[in-house]
Amino acid sequence: MLDNAKDFEERKILRAALRDLLKKKRDKREQDRGSRQQDLRQQGLSKGGTTGGGCWHRQSIHEPAASNKQDVRPGLSVSRR
């Protein structure tokens, strides 16, 4: 359509219409994304979960489970098979 336009004014009008169309599509996508995020937050809150991408704590394989850190002897390593 833009390629077939001959004079400057017609091309100018077509470019403006394309910009408006792209802006509307972008705004719609952002609105949909925002509503999806809000829905996910509400679902997380209703389940009692966290919304901040919770942090999982794993014990390191190099740190043995000991209630007292003085019980851990340095130099011991965990062997992997």
From TrEMBL:
Region (Disordered) residue spans: 23-81
Bias (Basic and acidic residues): 28-39
Top-level taxonomic group: Eukaryota
Residue span(s) of domain Smoothelin: 1-25
Biased composition (Gly residues): 46-55
Pfam families registered for this protein in UniProt: Smoothelin (PF12510)
TM region(s), chain numbering: none
Protein name: Smoothelin domain-containing protein
Source organism of this protein record: Champsocephalus esox
